[in-house]
Design brief:
two-stranded antiparallel sheet; mainly alpha; flat
Length: about 150
């Protein structure tokens, strides 16, 4: 009985994260779906709440931009990759210590770019975001499941 609930929770989380990641690509998707034009200002505003959206830190492709910076794009797509792996049974329990260790590259990248030790590198920010997003989501996912178990028991 609990497996059905866990599977439905995983599918719900996948759906939410997938829609969020699609929204990040809204400016790219406007070419395919022109009707997105009507909700684009709403999307742009909502993504600006969770990211600084500085134009020089956004991914740009053929003149179109993501709605969040490269680092945030990595975090959200890392979460998407993580929930897909969890759905297919590749779940690993992440400890708080592991979470902290895997967050170090992202924090160092933020510190060094802020101090102008090196310029903002989109690919590096994406990779550090993917790392933290995937590990961080796995950690949060386990917390969500533990809450559900406590509610059931």
């Amino acid at each position: 009985m609990f497996n059905i609930k866990v599977n439905s929770v995983n599918l719900f989380l996948f759906f939410i994260i997938f829609i969020w990641c699609l929204g990040i690509l809204a400016e790219f998707l406007l070419n395919l779906f022109p009707s997105l034009f009507y909700i684009f200002p709403f999307l742009k505003y909502n993504y600006s709440i969770v990211c600084h959206t500085q134009s020089e830190k956004l991914f740009t492709y053929f003149g179109y931009h993501t709605l969040v910076c490269s680092r945030c794009t990595g975090i959200y797509f890392g979460s998407l990759i993580s929930i897909i792996l969890i759905i297919f049974g590749f779940e690993k329990s992440i400890s708080t210590k592991q979470l902290l260790i895997f967050s170090i590259p992202l924090f160092l990248d933020v510190i060094f770019t802020t101090l102008n030790a090196y310029p903002y590198i989109h690919l590096l920010s994406l990779v550090t975001g993917l790392l933290l997003g995937s590990i961080g989501f796995s950690y949060i996912h386990k917390l969500i499941l533990n809450l559900l178990i406590k509610q059931k028991g």
